[in-house]
Design a protein that fits this description.
0% strand, TPR-like_helical_dom_sf, 30 helices, mainly alpha, repeat, PPR5-like, Pentatricopeptide repeat-containing protein, PPR_rpt
Length: 523
């Protein structure tokens, strides 16, 4: 024992001389170094600058001063692989090659497993921290089924050699959520917990899976569990998920309460926070709050991204603020014209509801961007009404023909009256007659206005026989004569001197108890 103590004492003296020589080369004294384990435990709850202040202010006791924390500090930066480092780039390149190989066999489970065994195992064993697996799953995000197959293989085949990490489980939970398999997401979370893997990213992933599948109540329960967790705390990502959940449900009060909680815990709002807030206000049609949030975002030096601009474009389109809509559109024109047909339709709707003089030109310019296979019945009917109100008969009839071809059914009398009014103003009775006939066959909403309009137009052209045939058409669709029907007949026969038929009409009016014109009684 004495000899052991002597050796230990000599080793300590050697260590002290080594550290003294190391310190003598430094021109300026250094602060107490960071303890890696302590840094990891505080990572989720404080910013980088706060961590530095916290640890540099700590004064270790005499018994805790040893060389190991100082030596660890010398290598601390070497444990972290920067995203732009040569090693990281090499990893990405190798993972990308594996990703391309897997995509070749997408849907072929047997060959995928062969590729993973032959090329995946050597690659993943070089990265025991699971970073290669996480990187691969990112690359496979566009094919969630394939990504989940790779994850399940990793889960079953490699775990005995290199235990799965928290981030790998978080990726798996996210994949399960995208595939609408919330049971699998919960199973993976429980499996990670059983392995003593704890982390905010796991909770965030499970909350995201529930959010993606519309399970707001379960999402909130997971959030409450996270707040009770001693080893990790909610991050801004956690609160962003909550804001998104409440925004989708139009629970604006809850969304704003979450925002206040973010400020209470001294977390900084990031781009996703603002985007989720704007999305919530757009969903709730709270245009002023949407615009106010956008202005605050820019005032806080948070640069809007493409998602922000797309949300604002949709909001301005729905609210009818055309000038601001056009300003945002100019910022994202190329992207919208190629990828956002729903936003193109929203802009068309905005112009349809507006009273600007050149709205038809604006509408037709946007319509050229929509492929033929992107037909939408509601948009077709809306455009029919626009062209009808503008008395653009040819364009209106082209859209009506498209509606008949796509078996679109109009069930609103107001739309039918809008179409009829356009035919009336253009004095196109024959076209109106054809439209009424097609509408009867297609099951569109029928109303007396269709037939009364035909009668008036036939009468104006002294086509009384055809006018009388309309009465038979009304009987076939169970429209009985109304007071207005008799008045149309009365004026037609009076105008063209058909006295005998005029007397018959007067008799029918008396029979049905309708008021008889005074000039008819005098005559």
């Amino acid at each position: 024992m004495k000899r052991a103590w002597k050796i230990s004492s000599e080793a300590a003296q050697t260590r002290d001389r080594f550290l003294h020589r190391r310190g003598s080369h430094n021109k300026t004294p250094t602060n107490n170094s960071l303890n890696p384990s302590s840094s990891q435990s505080c990572k989720a709850s404080a910013s980088h600058a706060q961590l530095l202040r916290e640890f540099t202010s700590q004064k270790p006791s005499a018994t805790s001063q040893s060389a190991w924390p100082n030596i660890a500090a010398l290598f601390l930066n070497n444990w972290i692989v920067p995203d732009d480092s040569t090693a990281k780039q090499d990893q990405r390149q190798r993972v990308s090659v594996l990703k391309d190989e897997l995509f070749k066999y997408s849907g072929d489970a047997e060959n995928i497993e062969i590729v993973l065994e032959g090329k995946g195992v050597p690659l993943f064993r070089n990265y025991y921290d699971g970073s290669a697996v996480v990187e691969l799953l990112k690359y496979l995000a566009s094919s969630p089924d394939l990504a989940l197959q790779v994850f399940n293989w990793r889960r079953g085949q490699l775990d005995y050699r290199a235990p799965m990490t928290t981030e790998e489980y978080a990726k798996g939970i996210t994949l399960a959520g995208k595939l609408k398999d919330v049971d699998l997401a919960a199973e993976l979370f429980a499996e990670a917990a059983n392995k003593k893997l704890k982390g905010t990213s796991l909770y965030n992933a499970l909350m995201g899976a529930y959010m993606y599948n519309g399970l707001a109540a379960k999402c909130q329960l997971v959030f409450q569990d996270l707040k009770r967790e001693a080893t990790c705390k909610p991050t801004i990502v956690t609160y962003n998920i909550l804001i998104s959940v409440f925004g989708r449900l139009m629970l604006v009060d809850h969304m704003e309460a979450t925002l206040r909680e973010i400020k209470d815990v001294n977390l900084s709002l990031n781009l996703n926070t603002y985007n989720n807030l704007i999305a919530g206000y757009v969903t709730a049609w709270m245009w002023d709050n949407m615009e106010k949030t956008y202005m605050i975002m820019k005032a806080d030096d948070v640069q809007p991204d493409i998602i922000t601009h797309l949300l604002m474009l949709r909001g301005y389109a729905h609210s009818g603020k055309l000038k601001r809509m056009e300003e945002i559109y100019e910022l994202v024109r190329d992207h919208v014209n190629t990828n956002e047909m729903s936003l193109i339709r929203a802009m068309i709707c905005a112009y349809c509801r507006s009273s600007v003089s050149n709205k038809v030109e604006k509408i037709e310019e946007l319509l050229t961007l929509i492929p033929e296979n992107e037909y939408r019945p509601w948009l077709n009917v809306l455009l029919i009404c626009v062209y009808a109100n503008e008395d653009l008969l040819e364009q209106m009839e082209n859209l009506i023909s498209q509606a008949f071809e796509h078996n679109t059914s109009v069930k609103t009398a107001a739309i039918m009256r809008c179409i009829v009014s356009s035919y009336f103003r253009n004095d196109a009775v024959d076209k109106l007659a054809n439209f009424v006939k097609c509408s009867e066959s297609a099951g569109w909403k029928l109303c007396r206005s269709l037939y009364h309009c035909k009668m008036v137009m036939y009468s104006s052209q002294r086509r009384l026989a055809e006018m009388e045939m309309v009465l038979d058409e009304m009987k076939q669709v169970n429209f009985y004569f109304s007071k207005k029907t008799f008045w149309i007949l009365y004026k037609a026969y009076s105008q063209w001197g058909q006295k005998s038929k005029l007397q018959q009409v007067l008799g029918m009016m008396c029979k049905h108890g309708y008021e008889v014109p005074l000039n008819a009684c005098c005559s």
